[in-house]
């Protein structure tokens, strides 16, 4: 049937790219997440304003004293969009699907979310127990994540060959209607929703790759909400009487040094690293590049994530000192490797960022050569080329500090890009996973962060804010820190 | 005596001077030539000054100046500045270097390879010709810019790779032209005369055939540069072109896409630069063709 | 003029040139275009042999085979006793200095990128017939021989008229002092007044250098002046060979008769009855069986069984026609 | 005719075979390893190996090629590295958009190009001729994407005449159908939607057509001028035919032969031009999609796109040759009939 | 008098400035007469014929002062539309190159029918009958089949026949034949000349026969006009001109042609070459090549002398040319 052409029945939400797909276990990109969050639901969910968890499809949960088994009581009377009832079997089906023995390579979050799971037991129709291999504080957070954790209809999964990328089927307030490649995904209100039904009938996720085009479309009233903005267009939007929504993003954008990837780069020397970091005026750079829509980062952790501490002392901006040290060390040229496109944590793109850094280095007498590649080549180059400095970032998944900090405790150059080794740091991180949330854990992470800062393993640059713009007749609009909007409560007047 | 030498001199250079007069009297071709000359001078001056470390452009084309981002065209910045506060005028001028060098290098590459292959095929015919031309067919059966894009997508960006990608895809053009010219020239009785005179194949190729096929190839090469400049820009625009931070026109356009409404000047000037360069080579190439066209001469 | 006391220069024996024509799916079907078919001919030293025939009958092909531009499909080309057809390309090149060619189109037979001097010097250089120092003066000498000023040597071909170009072509052919020159319609493209100049020039040069000519032309009129003997070709084979007086005064083959009657006579008082042939030359791909000329012959003897070969019919007169009973005297 | 057609068709096989090898080599041998980005930020070396194994990237290259070709013959171009959906599905979903745009553009380019070309040939050296030829020259000199952006600035930015991207307003989208919106909307008689779709298509079609239009104009003009000098045109005039019949019938029909060839060839360059145009106008066809895939190194998709366009291109060329043969009685298919 | 051309002068605009291709050409043709225009390449024969048809290429203009009277009406004064009524209808033309003068993409039948339909009011069937009849007349065997052939499927001689059929389609009063046999073989040439002759007898048309071959003239023409460098230098009946040429150029031309009955080893030759059209001298254009030339000839153009029904542009002509 044709869509209602009444304006208040449809909300248009323009984003920059098509989703990769609509199966929560098989995707990891924000554009898919935005849609998935409205079609599917998980056992738990994040609270509206932070990353604390609360029940969703589970009514309640219990943790065994040893921290090794979690028992969930499920909500009754919930049905998937295809009519399949939601129950303990369905939960087990969804988790088993992502256990190592059933894993397909594209389930990139399965390891993070269910990596510590030993088994899933169906206690009764509405009770399910998950047993862990070892205590894990992030586990509850994981159960609220957008990727991997949401529950999909077992019937649909069987029908579509374990792949719901194009045929999503969950329990959420909206159900899937159509996906026109490169154009839009249309979802419509789930009239059989277990809770309060959504206010607006249809949500249309439009794909509009060009930022300027999205802005024009918003200002013309062609769309109601846009995301993926950069600082340059904010004024234009506000001038047209539209609203800006911004919230701190759960991400970090940083520059890192080659320490052990290739043999003895200049940046293996801690003093050189410190001097180079010293040459960059991070707050100034962030202010000009991101125009106030990113906050300068002090550590890897965004301020709202537990474990964050403003007291961690990073290397201070001091160009004279930097110039002096670099001259002493005989550093006059440096090779910067970067990516070309924009990333979620770096909306201006890696090349622009690197070029800004290049001009700071120029001021302290270091000629930097910037080599920018598309993302794939860049990643390959990091492993194979000669380089001193690279750029990277991280988008948090579950609001747990470990999710950020364990990257640099890894031996895998894919996570620990500069291959920085520090035993003390590693020990602290290993201990942190098992500690319960609280001051003791925070203190431990604080210590780890300070070690990282002193060693100048990397230079944190910014936390990008999640920015969206919407028309004034849209009410109750918000974007969660994890980057998505729950449209159930959004109203269009 | 003086009369005679004068006459001789005239006749020797008459071919050349005929061509020159023809171009000189063709306003469009002359305009093209003048623009090309200007562009070449720009590119060479910039390159030399670059090598000597002299700053001839008003600003360093690659150096960011955050405080002056998105300045509209004004007295200090004639073409305005981009997102990083770099002077667009300096970048556009600097970009001449890249576009011309990629254009010339790519065309030389395909011209040399293409002409040799085509000439061999056309001269010897038979199996060799068949093999060469089938191979060319393979390259030709993928639209050239698409093939260049595929090359770049796989090889990654870079000046050398752009030259290679743009060069390879236009080899068949030259091979075809060279081949058909060789076949046409071969049909002339003077080739038969050369064989009857006992010339060897090599001598026939170098002394009789190659000098007679230069005109169409030179014309094609001139037009080829314009295509190569366009292709370079297209690759740059798709983010597959020359390695940043070099100021490359296509890349500049790609980066200004986000600001087409807020700062249209960032996209106006690089686009104009491409258009003017391509136009110049087209004008000159067309004029050259008219000047060298056998139909307008002879008999 | 009898054959006996003359020295044989060139002798063609059963010469054939078939061009392969492929068609069908995958080009697998072959058929042959018989441009020259089983042709035999003798040319004597110092004579000018005229070869006439309609367009497409194979005159050029024959000339090119002798000049080494085509390799015969079968048969022999005996030049001073050596079979040129049996030589490979390298060995054949040694004979280039002996056999030269003048082409029909004066515009395409000169390389536009070479000066007159370079053009004329070319055969001398590649055949190493003259020292470097000799070449310059010789070029000037040759230019004078063909009636051009030696100061022209630095000019390019496009600066000359058709007649002048043809002279340059002749000078080039003369450069290596050849024994045989093949003139393929050397004057057909020229104006009447220029034609006369070139024909005279060729006649003069023949005397001066003791040349032998194979003179190819469409019409009988042009050949007549310069030739001693004339051969009439039709569809790849020779129909009649005789001294020119016999050809004109006593043509034996019906085709020759028609050919002679087709020549317009300038004298308006002598407007004569013509023998008008019907139809065109048949395709050489599938030449008619038996007598080649049967399809257009006004004698209507319909000779479909026997291919006619040249047979003597009078003194020095060969003809390929069934109506001409061989003259036993000349057998 | 049939024999000629079959012959030409069979000749395509080795060419396409070599194209497939060429493309395969480019994409598989010379390209960077995409595994690192395919698997997102949670990739580990171990996972990457597993992924490579599952994609068959660890097999010997010849086996990989054979497997690939075997699948291609079954219409299976493999799976997108990113979306994990069959490439065939992804492309089929986007093909209608590209075809709709290309066809619109080629029609535009052919009609306008031929008209202007004939006009300027007939009015040689007039103001119209000079104006047309200048525009055509600028047309071939302007980068497509720049032209597109200028049109957007002018017509959607300042004048608000046309939308700047997309194919149709979402709410007017035909719910089921072929994916060719102009056709679908007409079939169900939804004219509002039809004009909406047309409105969306105009700017991209004009942009895409621009270059081809210029080429066709130039080609038509020179071919017309060539023909107008032919002897048979003089014959036609000597018959007493009017200028209109001489030009329209005798000259144009002959000039059409090279023009048809050019139009055919332009269709190929149009397809690749659509890569740039679709990107500028966010036209959801395979052009913009392949750019997306190029930027994230989704090689199976690029490979398929190049192969498909090559096939279309080659088939177009064949059709053009056949059309040429149909239009020009001089072209013989085979000697047998003679 | 069917056609009277007077003081016809045609100029071409070229890169190197205006070139006068023909100057002050006057001649006339009576009904049923064949006039031959002879001259070497570039002497302006084709330009003369195209000027009469007003079919010059766009850079050519007929200068004022010229008049071309056809049946008393001056063609110069007609509008293009009126001229079209004459072309192909009352004056038709055949050209030198039968290979390129027919449109390659229409069947020969269509091309002839086009002429018929254009100028007559015949219906389809009648037109077709007429077409078949015409083809039969010009000697095309099996016309019913041949009308569907394309020009490339025919030999040169056949095509020239088609051209003639096309020219005769509307039974014109004047046929202009521009070197109709030059590109053909001798045997075919004879066929075509014979055909033109027959057509003249049959339809009682006048023919302007352009050729450079005096043999053709002797065979076919009633009257001859000899052109040299854009001017007519001599004019008269065929018999008189060929047996007793006055102008040294005509004489030289006649002498330089190889003759069947002449066995002298050398041909007569006119020295020198035809000057290119830009360099035609003020005085007599033939002066440089002429053995009778005097200072007068070089200085001023010799006037056209009229002697009985002959005209000659020479001051030194001998009453009796000796051949
Ligand atoms: N290279 C070739 N390949 C195929 N066929 C050829 C080739 N050269 C000549 N022929 C054919 O051979 C036949 C004889 O050609 P040739 O040129 O010898 O004739 P010709 O008597 O010289 O004619 P003309 O008087 O027109 O020059 C013609 O039918 C021609 O089409
Ligand atoms: N369109 C033109 N532009 C310039 N000059 C021309 C043009 N047409 C003819 N001429 C010149 O006019 C002169 C006469 O040409 P015309 O074609 O009448 O010669 P012709 O006697 O027919 O020669 P041919 O025997 O070669 O056909 C030539 O010198 C030619 O260069
Ligand atoms: Mg020949
Ligand atoms: Mg003429």
From TrEMBL, chain B:
<feature type="transmembrane region" description="Helical">
    <location>
        <begin position="262"/>
        <end position="285"/>
    </location>
</feature>
<keyword id="KW-0813">Transport</keyword>
<feature type="transmembrane region" description="Helical">
    <location>
        <begin position="28"/>
        <end position="49"/>
    </location>
</feature>
<keyword id="KW-0472">Membrane</keyword>
<dbReference type="InterPro" id="IPR025966">
    <property type="entry name" value="OppC_N"/>
</dbReference>
<protein>
    <submittedName>
        <fullName>ABC transporter, permease protein</fullName>
    </submittedName>
</protein>
<dbReference type="Pfam" id="PF00528">
    <property type="entry name" value="BPD_transp_1"/>
</dbReference>
<dbReference type="InterPro" id="IPR000515">
    <property type="entry name" value="MetI-like"/>
</dbReference>
<dbReference type="Pfam" id="PF12911">
    <property type="entry name" value="OppC_N"/>
</dbReference>
<dbReference type="InterPro" id="IPR050366">
    <property type="entry name" value="BP-dependent_transpt_permease"/>
</dbReference>
<feature type="transmembrane region" description="Helical">
    <location>
        <begin position="131"/>
        <end position="155"/>
    </location>
</feature>
<feature type="domain" description="ABC transmembrane type-1">
    <location>
        <begin position="96"/>
        <end position="285"/>
    </location>
</feature>
<keyword id="KW-1133">Transmembrane helix</keyword>
<keyword id="KW-1003">Cell membrane</keyword>
<keyword id="KW-0812">Transmembrane</keyword>
TrEMBL record, chain C:
<keyword id="KW-0067">ATP-binding</keyword>
<feature type="domain" description="ABC transporter">
    <location>
        <begin position="10"/>
        <end position="260"/>
    </location>
</feature>
<dbReference type="GO" id="GO:0016887">
    <property type="term" value="F:ATP hydrolysis activity"/>
</dbReference>
<dbReference type="GO" id="GO:0005524">
    <property type="term" value="F:ATP binding"/>
</dbReference>
<protein>
    <submittedName>
        <fullName>ABC transporter, ATP-binding protein</fullName>
    </submittedName>
</protein>
<dbReference type="GO" id="GO:0055085">
    <property type="term" value="P:transmembrane transport"/>
</dbReference>
<dbReference type="InterPro" id="IPR027417">
    <property type="entry name" value="P-loop_NTPase"/>
</dbReference>
<dbReference type="InterPro" id="IPR013563">
    <property type="entry name" value="Oligopep_ABC_C"/>
</dbReference>
<keyword id="KW-0813">Transport</keyword>
<dbReference type="Pfam" id="PF00005">
    <property type="entry name" value="ABC_tran"/>
</dbReference>
<dbReference type="InterPro" id="IPR003593">
    <property type="entry name" value="AAA+_ATPase"/>
</dbReference>
<dbReference type="InterPro" id="IPR003439">
    <property type="entry name" value="ABC_transporter-like_ATP-bd"/>
</dbReference>
<dbReference type="Pfam" id="PF08352">
    <property type="entry name" value="oligo_HPY"/>
</dbReference>
<dbReference type="InterPro" id="IPR050319">
    <property type="entry name" value="ABC_transp_ATP-bind"/>
</dbReference>
<keyword id="KW-0547">Nucleotide-binding</keyword>
From TrEMBL, chain E:
<keyword id="KW-0813">Transport</keyword>
<keyword id="KW-0472">Membrane</keyword>
<dbReference type="InterPro" id="IPR017871">
    <property type="entry name" value="ABC_transporter-like_CS"/>
</dbReference>
<dbReference type="Pfam" id="PF00005">
    <property type="entry name" value="ABC_tran"/>
</dbReference>
<keyword id="KW-0547">Nucleotide-binding</keyword>
<dbReference type="GO" id="GO:0055085">
    <property type="term" value="P:transmembrane transport"/>
</dbReference>
<dbReference type="GO" id="GO:0015833">
    <property type="term" value="P:peptide transport"/>
</dbReference>
<dbReference type="InterPro" id="IPR003439">
    <property type="entry name" value="ABC_transporter-like_ATP-bd"/>
</dbReference>
<dbReference type="InterPro" id="IPR027417">
    <property type="entry name" value="P-loop_NTPase"/>
</dbReference>
<comment type="similarity">
    <text>Belongs to the ABC transporter superfamily.</text>
</comment>
<dbReference type="GO" id="GO:0005886">
    <property type="term" value="C:plasma membrane"/>
</dbReference>
<protein>
    <recommendedName>
        <fullName>ABC-type dipeptide transporter</fullName>
        <ecNumber>7.4.2.9</ecNumber>
    </recommendedName>
</protein>
<dbReference type="GO" id="GO:0016887">
    <property type="term" value="F:ATP hydrolysis activity"/>
</dbReference>
<dbReference type="Pfam" id="PF08352">
    <property type="entry name" value="oligo_HPY"/>
</dbReference>
<dbReference type="InterPro" id="IPR003593">
    <property type="entry name" value="AAA+_ATPase"/>
</dbReference>
């Amino acid at each position: 049937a044709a869509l209602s052409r009444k304006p208040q029945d449809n909300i248009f939400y323009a984003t920059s790219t098509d989703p990769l797909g609509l199966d929560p276990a098989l995707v990891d990109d924000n554009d898919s997440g935005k849609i998935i969050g409205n079609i599917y639901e998980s056992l738990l969910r994040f609270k509206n304003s932070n990353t604390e968890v609360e029940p969703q499809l589970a009514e309640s949960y219990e943790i065994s004293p040893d921290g090794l088994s979690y028992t969930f009581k499920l909500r009754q009377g919930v049905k998937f969009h295809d009519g399949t009832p939601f129950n303990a079997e369905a939960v087990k089906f969804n988790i088993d699907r992502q256990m190592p023995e059933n894993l397909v390579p594209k389930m990139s979050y399965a390891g993070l979310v269910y990596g510590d799971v030993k088994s899933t037991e169906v206690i009764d129709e509405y009770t399910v127990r998950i047993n862990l291999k070892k205590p894990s504080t992030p586990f509850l957070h994981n159960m609220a994540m957008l990727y991997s954790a949401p529950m999909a209809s077992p019937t649909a999964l069987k029908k579509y060959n374990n792949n719901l990328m194009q045929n999503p089927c969950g329990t959420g307030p909206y159900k899937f209607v159509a996906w026109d490649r490169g154009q839009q995904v249309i979802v419509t209100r789930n009239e059989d929703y277990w809770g309060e039904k959504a206010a607006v009938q249809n949500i249309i996720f439009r794909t509009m790759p060009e930022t300027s085009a999205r802005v024009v479309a918003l200002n013309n009233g062609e769309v109601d909400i846009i995301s993926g903005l950069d600082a340059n267009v904010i004024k234009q939007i506000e001038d047209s009487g539209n609203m800006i929504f911004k919230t701190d993003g759960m991400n970090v954008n940083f520059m890192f040094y080659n320490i052990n990837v290739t043999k003895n780069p200049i940046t293996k020397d801690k003093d050189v690293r410190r001097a180079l970091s010293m040459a960059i005026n991070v707050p100034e750079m962030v202010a000009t590049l991101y125009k106030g829509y990113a906050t300068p980062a002090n550590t890897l952790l965004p301020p709202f994530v537990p474990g964050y501490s403003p007291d961690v002392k990073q290397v201070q901006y001091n160009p004279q000192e930097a110039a002096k040290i670099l001259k002493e060390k005989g550093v006059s040229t440096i090779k910067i490797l970067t990516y070309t496109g924009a990333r979620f944590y770096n909306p201006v793109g890696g090349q622009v960022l690197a070029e800004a850094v290049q001009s700071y280095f120029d001021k302290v007498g270091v000629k930097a050569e910037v080599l920018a590649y598309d993302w794939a080549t860049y990643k390959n180059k990091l492993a194979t080329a000669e380089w001193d400095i690279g750029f990277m970032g991280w988008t948090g998944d579950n609001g747990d500090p470990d999710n950020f900090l364990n990257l640099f405790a890894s031996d895998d150059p894919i996570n620990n890009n500069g291959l920085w080794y520090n035993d003390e740091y590693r020990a602290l991180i290993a201990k942190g996973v098992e500690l319960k949330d609280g001051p003791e854990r925070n203190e431990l992470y604080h210590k780890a962060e300070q070690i990282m800062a002193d060693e100048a393993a990397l230079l944190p640059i910014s936390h990008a804010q999640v920015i969206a713009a919407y028309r004034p007749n849209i009410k109750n609009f918000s974007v969660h820190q994890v980057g998505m909007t729950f449209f159930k409560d959004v109203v269009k007047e | 005596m003086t009369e005679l030498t004068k006459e001789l001199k005239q006749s020797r250079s008459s071919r050349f001077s005929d061509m020159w007069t023809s171009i000189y009297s063709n306003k469009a071709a002359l305009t093209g030539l003048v623009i090309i000359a200007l562009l070449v001078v720009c590119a060479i001056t910039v390159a030399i000054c670059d090598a000597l470390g002299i700053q001839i452009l008003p600003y360093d084309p690659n150096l960011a100046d955050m405080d002056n981002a998105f300045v509209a065209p004004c007295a200090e910045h004639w073409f305005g500045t981009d997102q990083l506060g770099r002077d667009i005028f300096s970048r556009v001028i600097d970009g001449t270097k890249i576009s011309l060098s990629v254009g010339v290098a790519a065309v030389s590459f395909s011209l040399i390879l293409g002409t040799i292959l085509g000439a061999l095929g056309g001269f010897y015919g038979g199996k060799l010709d068949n093999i060469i031309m089938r191979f060319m067919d393979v390259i030709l059966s993928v639209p050239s810019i698409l093939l260049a894009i595929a090359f770049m997508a796989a090889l990654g960006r870079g000046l050398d790779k752009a030259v290679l990608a743009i060069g390879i895809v236009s080899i068949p053009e030259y091979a075809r032209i060279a081949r058909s010219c060789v076949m046409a020239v071969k049909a002339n009785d003077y080739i038969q005369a050369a064989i009857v005179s006992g010339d060897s194949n090599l001598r026939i190729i170098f002394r009789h055939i190659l000098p007679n096929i230069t005109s169409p190839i030179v014309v094609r090469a001139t037009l080829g540069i314009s295509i190569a400049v366009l292709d370079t820009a297209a690759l740059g625009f798709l983010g597959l072109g020359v390695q940043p931070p070099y100021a490359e026109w296509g890349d500049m356009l790609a980066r200004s896409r986000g600001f087409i409404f807020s700062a249209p000047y960032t996209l106006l000037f690089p686009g104009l630069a491409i258009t003017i360069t391509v136009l110049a080579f087209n004008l000159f190439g067309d004029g050259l063709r008219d000047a060298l066209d056998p139909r307008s001469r002879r008999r | 003029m009898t054959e006996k006391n003359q020295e044989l220069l060139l002798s063609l024996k059963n010469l054939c040139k078939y061009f392969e024509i492929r068609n069908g799916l995958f080009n697998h079907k072959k058929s042959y275009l018989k441009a020259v078919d089983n042709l035999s001919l003798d040319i004597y030293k110092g004579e000018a042999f005229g070869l006439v025939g309609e367009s497409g009958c194979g005159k050029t092909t024959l000339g090119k085979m002798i000049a080494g531009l085509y390799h015969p499909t079968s048969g022999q080309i005996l030049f001073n006793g050596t079979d040129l057809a049996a030589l490979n390309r390298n060995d054949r090149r040694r004979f280039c200095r002996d056999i030269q060619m003048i082409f029909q189109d004066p515009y395409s037979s000169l390389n536009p990128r070479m000066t007159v001097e370079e053009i004329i010097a070319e055969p001398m250089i590649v055949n190493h017939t003259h020292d470097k120092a000799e070449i310059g003066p010789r070029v000037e000498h040759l230019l004078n021989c063909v009636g051009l000023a030696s100061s022209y040597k630095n000019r390019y071909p496009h600066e000359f008229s058709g007649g002048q170009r043809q002279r340059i072509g002749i000078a080039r052919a003369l450069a290596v002092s050849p024994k045989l020159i093949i003139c393929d319609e050397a004057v057909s493209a020229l104006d009447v007044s220029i034609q006369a100049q070139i024909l005279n020039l060729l006649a003069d040069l023949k005397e001066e250098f003791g040349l032998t000519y194979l003179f190819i032309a469409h019409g009988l009129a042009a050949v007549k002046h310069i030739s001693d003997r004339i051969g009439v070709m039709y569809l790849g084979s020779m129909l009649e060979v005789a001294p020119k007086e016999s050809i004109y005064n006593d043509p034996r083959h019906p085709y020759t008769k028609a050919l002679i009657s087709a020549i317009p006579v300038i004298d308006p008082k002598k407007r004569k009855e013509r023998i008008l042939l019907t139809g065109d030359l048949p395709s050489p791909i599938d030449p008619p069986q038996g007598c080649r000329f049967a399809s257009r012959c006004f004698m209507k003897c319909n000779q479909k069984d026997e291919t006619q070969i040249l047979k003597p019919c009078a003194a020095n007169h060969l003809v390929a026609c069934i109506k001409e009973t061989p003259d036993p005297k000349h057998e | 005719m049939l024999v000629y057609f079959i012959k030409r068709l069979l000749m395509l096989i080795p060419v396409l075979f070599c194209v497939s090898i060429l493309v395969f080599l480019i994409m598989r041998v010379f390209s960077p390893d995409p595994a690192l980005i395919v698997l997102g930020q949670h990739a580990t070396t171990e996972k990457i190996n597993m992924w490579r194994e599952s994609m068959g990237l660890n097999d010997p290259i010849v086996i990989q090629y054979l497997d690939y070709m075997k699948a291609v013959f079954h219409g299976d171009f493999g799976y997108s590295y990113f979306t994990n959906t069959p490439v065939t599905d992804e492309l089929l979903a986007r093909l209608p958009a590209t075809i709709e745009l290309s066809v619109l553009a080629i029609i535009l380019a052919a009609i306008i190009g031929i008209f202007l070309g004939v006009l300027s040939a007939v009015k040689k050296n007039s103001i119209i001729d000079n104006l047309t030829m200048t525009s055509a020259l600028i047309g071939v000199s302007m980068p497509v994407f720049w032209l597109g952006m200028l049109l957007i600035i002018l017509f959607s930015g300042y004048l608000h005449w046309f939308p700047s991207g997309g194919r149709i307003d979402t709410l007017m989208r035909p719910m089921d159908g072929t994916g060719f919106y102009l056709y679908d909307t007409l079939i169900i008689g939804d004219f509002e939607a039809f004009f909406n779709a047309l409105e969306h298509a105009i700017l991209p079609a004009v942009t895409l057509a621009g270059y081809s239009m210029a080429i066709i104009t130039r080609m038509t003009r020179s071919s017309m001028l060539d023909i107008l000098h032919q002897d048979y045109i003089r014959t036609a005039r000597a018959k007493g035919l009017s200028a209109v019949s001489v030009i329209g019938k005798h000259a144009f029909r002959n000039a059409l032969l090279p023009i048809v060839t050019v139009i055919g060839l332009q269709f190929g360059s149009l397809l690749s031009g659509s890569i740039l145009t679709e990107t500028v106008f966010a036209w959801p066809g395979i052009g913009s999609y392949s750019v997306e895939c190029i930027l994230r190194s989704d090689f199976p998709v690029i490979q398929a796109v190049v192969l498909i366009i090559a096939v279309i291109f080659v088939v177009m060329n064949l059709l053009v040759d056949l059309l040429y043969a149909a239009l020009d009685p001089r072209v013989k298919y085979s000697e047998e009939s003679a | 008098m069917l056609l009277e051309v007077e003081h016809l002068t045609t100029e071409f605009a070229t890169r190197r400035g205006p070139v006068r291709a023909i100057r002050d050409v006057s001649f006339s043709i009576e009904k049923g007469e064949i006039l031959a225009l002879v001259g070497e390449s570039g002497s302006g024969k084709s330009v003369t014929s195209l000027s009469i048809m007003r079919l010059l290429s766009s850079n050519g203009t007929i200068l004022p002062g010229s008049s071309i009277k056809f049946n008393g009406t001056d063609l110069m004064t007609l509008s293009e539309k009126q001229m079209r009524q004459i072309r192909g209808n009352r004056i038709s033309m055949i050209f030198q190159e039968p290979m390129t003068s027919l449109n390659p993409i229409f069947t020969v039948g269509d091309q002839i029918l086009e002429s018929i339909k254009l100028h007559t009011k015949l219906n389809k069937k009648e037109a077709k009958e007429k077409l078949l009849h015409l083809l039969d007349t010009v000697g095309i065997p099996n016309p019913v089949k041949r009308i569907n052939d394309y020009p490339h499927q025919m030999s040169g001689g056949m095509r020239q026949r088609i051209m003639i059929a096309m020219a005769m389609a509307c039974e014109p009063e004047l046929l202009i034949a521009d070197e109709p046999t030059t590109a053909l073989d001798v045997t075919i040439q004879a066929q075509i000349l014979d055909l033109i002759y027959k057509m003249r007898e049959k339809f009682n048309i006048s023919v302007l026969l352009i050729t450079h071959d005096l043999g053709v003239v002797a065979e076919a023409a009633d009257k001859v006009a000899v052109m040299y460098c854009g001017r007519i230098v001599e004019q008269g009946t065929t018999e008189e001109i060929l047996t007793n040429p006055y102008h040294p150029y005509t004489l030289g031309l006649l002498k330089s042609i190889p003759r069947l009955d002449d066995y002298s080893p050398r041909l007569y030759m006119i020295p020198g070459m035809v000057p290119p059209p830009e360099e035609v001298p003020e005085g007599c254009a033939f002066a440089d090549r002429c053995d009778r030339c005097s200072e007068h000839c070089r200085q001023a153009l010799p006037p056209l002398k009229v002697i009985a029904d002959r005209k000659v542009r020479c001051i030194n002509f001998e009453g009796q040319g000796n051949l």
